[in-house]
Specification:
By secondary structure, the chain is an alpha+beta fold. The chain has one domain: Beta-Lactamase.
């Protein structure tokens, strides 16, 4: 969900301040946040501390991996097919399924995924906000 209203009169100092604000907002968020690339396998580029608390995986363990490692035998495959279709169409996704922590324990995860587009409207990344449901 990207805003169509953008302030284009920002100074370089404004941009640095905004970047700092966004970093603090992500790192201090109570919800798990994951940023992936749009390339095959959706390689993870960033996870916040809440992701580590939710899953038991550290940032170093997951960067570069695809988010599929959280899935297991009880993960809803039909929902994953629906997720793929939504991502392919450039639409946001919202769903719930069983995922797995590093220790193998199950948890019901609810998440929303938003495509992030570049200036040419090409999807370059996906932002996922997750929580135990």
């Amino acid at each position: 969900m990207q805003s169509s209203k953008r302030n284009t009169n920002w100074t370089e100092n404004d941009r640095i301040t905004l970047e700092n604000i966004l970093n603090i907002a992500l790192d201090s968020n109570f919800s798990s946040v994951m940023l992936t690339g749009a390339a095959d396998g959706y390689p993870i580029k960033y996870v916040n501390p809440a992701f580590t608390e939710l899953t038991g995986y550290s940032c170093d363990e997951v960067i570069g991996e695809g988010p599929g490692f959280l899935q297991g035998p009880k993960t809803d495959r039909d929902l994953l097919d629906h997720l793929r279709k939504k991502l392919e169409s450039g639409s946001p996704f919202h769903g719930k399924t069983i995922n797995y922590r590093k220790d193998g324990s199950e948890f019901m995860m609810e998440w929303k995924i938003y495509p992030i587009n570049d200036s040419k409207d090409k999807t370059t990344h996906y932002l996922a906000v997750q929580r135990a449901a």
